[in-house]
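agent> Task received from the user: take the single chain below, predict its 3D structure, and emit structure tokens. No templates, no multimer pairing.
agent> Plan: (1) validate residues, (2) run structure prediction, (3) serialize to tokens, (4) report one or two observations.
agent> Step 1 OK, no nonstandard residues flagged.
tool_call: predict_structure(input=
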Amino acid sequence: MHAWPASEVPALPGKGRDLTIHDTATGGPVTLDPGPVARIYVCGITPYDATHIGHAATYNAFDLVQRVWLDTKRQVHYVQNVTDVDDPLLERAARDNVDWVSLAEQETTLFREDMTALRMLPPRHYIGAVEAIPGIVPLVERLRDSGAAYELDGDVYFSVEADPHFGGVANLDAAAMRLLSAERGGDPDRPGKKNPLDPMLWMAAREGEPSWDGASLGRGRPGWHIECVAIALDHLGMGFDVQGGGSDLAFPHHEMGASHAQALTGEFPMAKAYVHAGMVGLDGHKMSKSRGNLVFVSTLRREGVDPAAIRLALLSHHYRADWEWTDQVLQDALARLERWRAAVSRPDGPSAETLVDEIREALADDLDAPSALLAVDRWAALQEERGGTDEGAPGVVSRAVDALMGVAL
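)
tool_result: status=success, residues=409
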């Protein structure tokens, strides 16, 4: 599966700071020192509907991670998946009487277009769950054969007790985990499971649903968590730098994925930092496809909203914060974009040397994009009030905002 085209990242003078970021597993900040190649895995979409602002906020956060690393003169090995077969996709296709494969392809194409418009840097590897199945089957067999998994009426379940570190990502108690498992795709009440929290690794073929050859597992399709594990281990290996996604993925998805990988390899941890973006709400509730309270990136673009303004709206909130999308958020972003473009359109201006440092410092400090925006606001205000004599300053500001925040002025 192909990703989307990369926008050029301007080179800046000097070198950025190492990234300190909040790690869900430890509950505090960690300073990452990835070496010459930083490795990041971000969980992708289930393509049964268009990209909404909540998705965009998550991918914006991890785009910033990439940009901070690139500014430290590192390479970035970024991997993202597409869950292109799953119950919600099949249910939507059945509801709309369309082919599930065509629906997945259509929405993945739209996602690529949205990411391109928003200047999100593409992954080096963009892998669909279906294309990963040949690599998933042997992992499930290994877990079963080692005793870390078991069969139940033809399905294969992972035993959470096989990983002594289980529970160390989201750090939730058993009651909270059971509740979230039921809400987020698990089946804690199924009779016969060794532990209610045990997640499915391989679902035996169901009538009327797609299935694939699973060798000794029989025909079926993979569970949700093992898909990302197979892709991450194949392309990044254990101990990669950042496992990323929305905060709703901390449990069960990232918790279970870490345990799968750790049971398979005997190594710990799967990722050095588990990083989670906050949820975006609308009308008092988290944006979700099930509730239908969505603002789509593609709809805003069709209405003529500049993608740079959408990006500024996302950047105006700290990535870990839960926040509400409103018309005022967008209007503020549009006004900011207009001020910034006016400021960099002049032939000269106030010195921007300290501004670049301010942006770097803010983003290296747990991706503090709102502080970075305020730094640019201050420079733009000086430009408007009294201008300056530095002929290179507007160009430096324009390149810094593009390189570090993905906003083209």
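agent> Step 4: summary for the user.
The first strand starts at residue 20 and ends at 23.
agent> Done.
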